[in-house]
Amino acid sequence: MAFLIFIGFIIVQRLSELAVARRNEQWMKAKGAIEFGSGHYPFIVFVHTAFILSTIFEVYYYNRGLSTFWPVLLAVFLLTQGIRVWAISSLGPYWNTKIIVLPNADIVKKGPYRFIKHPNYLVVAVEIITIPLLFNAYFTAFIFTGLNLLILGIRIPAEEQALNELTYYEAQFEDNSRFIPKLLKKYDK
C-alpha cells in the first residue's frame, strides 16, 4: 500500500509539472522565446516514463518491499522535493521541461541558482537513485542512473549553449559549478 501511495504521488507530481511546463512554454513563446534541443526531448520523456514503469514492474514482479534504510532514503527524497519546489518557484514562468529561451531575458540567479547552475537536474539525479532504492528496486536504480547520466550529458551542454547564445548566462554563472555548491569563495578586496 505504501508503494502505491508513493508511486501515485510521483505520477501526479510529474503530470502536474508537465501542465505547468506547458503553460510556461505558451507564455514564453508568446513573448518570442525559442526552443532548442527538441530532437532529444522525446528520449527524455521516454526515459522518465520508462523509469516509473520499471520501478512499478520491479517492485511487483520481484515482490520488493520497503528498504531497511527507508527512513534515510525517505528523508533524502523529501529534501529533494523541497529543492525541486524551490528551483521551480525561483524560475517562475521561465521553468520548463524543455529548453526554451527568451532572448535577452534576465538570468534568474536566486533560490538554489545562487549556489549551483542546475539544481533541478541534481534533484532528478538523486531521485532516480532514491525512489527505486526506497523499495529495493536495484535494477531500476542502476539502469536508469546510467540512462540519466547519458541524458544529462546531452541535455546540459545543449541548454547551456542555448542560454549562452541568447542571454548573458555564462557571465552570470561563472562562479557557480553545475552541481556542487562552492562553499568557500574568495573575495577580492
Number of strands: 2
Strand order of the largest sheet: 1-2
Q: Main sheet? A: 2 strands, antiparallel
Number of domains as seen in the coordinates: 1
Shape assignment: globular
What is the percentage of strand-forming residues?
under 5%
Structural class: mainly alpha
Q: Calculate Rg over CA atoms.
A: 18 Å
Mean pLDDT: 91
Please mark out the parts with pLDDT under 50 across 5 or more consecutive residues, or reply none. none
Distance between the amino and carboxyl termini:
58 Å
The SSE string, one letter per element, is HEHHEHHH
Q: Please tally the helical runs, counting DSSP H or I stretches of 4 or more residues.
A: 6
Helical content band: 55-70%
Keywords: Membrane, Methyltransferase, Transferase, Transmembrane, Transmembrane helix
Transmembrane segments: 40-62, 69-88, 121-151
GO molecular function: protein C-terminal S-isoprenylcysteine carboxyl O-methyltransferase activity
Membrane topology: Multi-pass membrane protein
Describe the structure.
This protein is mostly helical and about 190 residues long. It has one domain. The protein is built from six helices and two strands; from the N terminus they run αβααβααα. A two-stranded antiparallel ribbon has the order 1-2. The radius of gyration is 18 Å and the shape is globular. The mean pLDDT is about 90.
